[in-house]
Amino acid sequence: MQLVKDIRTVLRTKTSSARKSKLVHKLLAALIGVAAAAVSGLLATPAQAAENGTSFFLGGNKGPMAGATPPPGLFVSNNVYIYSGSASPSLEIPVGGKIVAGVDADLVLDMPTLLWVTGANVFGGRLAFAATVPVGGLDIFAEAQFQTPLGAPGPSIEDSVTTLADPVLTSFVGWDSGNYHWQAGVSLNLPIGDYKAGQLANVALHRWAADLFVAGTWLDPALGLDVSAVIGFTVNGKNNATDYKTGEEFHAELAISQHLSKEFTVGLVGFYYEQVSGDSGAGAALGEFQGRTAGIGATMGYTFHVGKAPISLNLRYYHELDVENRLSGDIGVVSLAMPLWVPGH
Fold this sequence. Notes:
The protein is built from two helices and 17 strands. By secondary structure, the chain is mainly beta.
């Protein structure tokens, strides 16, 4: 949780007038600091869219090797997801049961995940289970709030929180055939995180959500080229605290990376998200509020060893494009993954 607070401190140092011109430099500084802290710790020890204008899907959360499944064993990974964005004063957004405009938000989400790849064979693939318990920090400011859509604007409002988000359970089956690796599975959002009704800042969605996904990776060892893609479809439940039912969502991610050496990779990444059905419920005062976004950026990775254990570090940066009915901004992701136990090793 301290890591989340440290990165949020960096993000809060931006002034609104210099946000876009300095954001990239501040995000890179935050990413490098997080990566250095993680490596140091390891070495020292053996659109209008959806409620809140956000979704269960986090653009850029998946990257290179997304379709590859490790051998049977226990693995741990951690994604630090950093988002800084804003919305026009002319765009009204439903947030925490309120209608606000001119939103400016900074989010840091730390997502440790435990992965168990079983020895069970399902349709010729390896069955796996994962559990993620995120901790997040959110700072949000709105220039105006409204009692009704298109009503008279009220005073500005701001809020912040650092707390537990909703846990996520995932199960998938992974296959391999030569240079091809692919998965099919489902992730389930459990609405048991720390959520405060009527509060502007919440990192928990407070609704059931199921994301059905397929992922594939083509990795050619001779060329050192990795092409990975993920396609998913999210079915959302209702937030009972706000009586808001978010519509269903489609998303896709792509990562193309080249190994410059056995340890170092660079590449390009991108994602696309679109809400394909409208919002509903008494809390959906703005109507169907469907939206979309796309992001494009770059990635770099480095693999090293602590003892005999391989550690994979990956950094990704995205800038959002073609945004409708959502906040628009920039994303930074730091991913770290390592095995805990692999039979025979």
